[in-house]
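Quick illustration, no need to memorize.
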Amino acid sequence: MYEDIILKTIGRILRSRIQRAERWVKDMNALMEKRDTSSGLTFSIQWKPKTAETEEEMDTKDLVELLRMNSRLLKEEDLQRVTMHFRSKINRAREMLEERGQGNTLHQVIKEVLNYRKWFSFTLYYQKTNEPKRELTNQKFYKFSGGEKAMAMYIPLFAAAYSRYQEAAEDAPYIISLDEAFAGVDENNIRDMFALVEELGFNYIMNSQALWGDYDTVPSLSICELVRPKNAPYVTVIRYHWDGKVKRLASNPDEEFTFTSSI
């Protein structure tokens, strides 16, 4: 069963999913490492295979290498290692499910064991100009300035969203929305964040108390200012258009713009 189902049928699916995730990580790093922020701060990410939790199990790195091989070329000892690994995983998953009180169905156990995402962990790294690359731990993160903290969150998230959108249809919109967008980020880095958003081709809706989005990195933007005069029971919408150079008041309040982005 392990050889015919896990190594052949399911193994092909797992190999495909793992390779796809590795391409995502590669694409994300290419996007993150080329950002030239005002503080010289860049980020990168690694998708690290986990080590074995028991003696019967294999390290994820070794397991993935065997799953990538043609099952016909595997040695008998390799087949035994894989069999022992999944048998141990299934037994432990069954015990965990019993402890959680979720029953003990075969579907639940197999789903738990074959969830390849739990075989790896993401580690985020940062690097400043003339400094070595370091892991971004909580302790390091809290030593960042407000702007650097925001960059550490926005850049990886944008890169991850873009990587996932690559599987969408060619005419699909790349939609993101941000509440209190880029709060605490300085002007130079906000400009760079908009450059990244535009470079990735996102269709975006953002709101903020002090953000206009009229940067030279933004070629076109529809802007709506919400005004509530003297605690009035209504909100007035004042519309602007940024053409990449000048922000102009819309001549017709009911004019509808067709832009790739709005704020």
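The chain has seven helices and eight strands.
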